[in-house]
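Researcher: Checking consistency across runs. Here is NAD(P)/FAD-dependent oxidoreductase again:
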Amino acid sequence: MTTYDVVVIGAGVAGLNAALVLTRARRSVLVVDSGQPRNAPAAHSHGFLTRDGVPPSELYALGRKEVEGYGGEFIDGEVTAITRGFTVDLADGTKLKARRVLVATGLRDELPDIPGLAERWGKDAIACPYCHGYEFADRPIGVLHDANHALLLRQWSSDIVFVTPTKDIPERLKLEARGIRIVEGTVSGLLVEDDRLRGVELTDGRCVPTEAVFLRPNFVARDEFLKPLGYDPALTGFAGKTNVDGIWVAGNVGNMMANLISSAAEGSTAAAMINSDLVQADTNDAPVSLVSG
């Protein structure tokens, strides 16, 4: 079984940029790709310098080609476990050996149980104004449940409606001061016509017209396979070095607020630190020659 200097788990921008830095440092690198990028439903990526507007699939294909150009390898699969040493187990029974591991598996968006929401997610039902707010500028935007999110979206459009199931809104005066309409009611679903969002439906039969709906989902890190090793996200240090010796994290798996470009930067920084750690190990393991004069 081949032992790689580094196994990178996750082929998003964090994992790919880490693999690029490590292969250029002449390390043997294997990237495990589950084929489940968080932004797969989105038509375009935004906020990534020189790549603004590029479809996610194209961005990943470009990154993969660059990594392969420096000798990096890829394998399709989903990691189920890591044992100290390190052996990385895949769902299909494949076992990989690594001296160091970088986890860049990202997170998953846990959505509220609203009929039709999952089907629109990443299209016109979205979370991040910085990623997709510009595309809905000056258009009717609905915001669910989070008043501060509504205040933020006001930067992109003057037509903002805040939909909330409660009358208790501490930010009411701030919302009103910014011209944000408030609709009190419980969401029952989304109105979609011709594959476009047209409104937010309420349980009392009302429909709030909107062309986009923003909400903050529950972010869940994809780090389940690290927990048996004693991994504690709160103990992650500089450059993503975890409390499990030899394992680093980069991107959304360790920083849920990271966007594309900051995730790529985290991958780059973690890769440099991993290479430095391997240099130290290589030096410590080198035979010492005593030359007498």
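Researcher: Does this match what you'd expect to see?
Model: One thing to look at in this run: The first strand starts at residue 3 and ends at 9.
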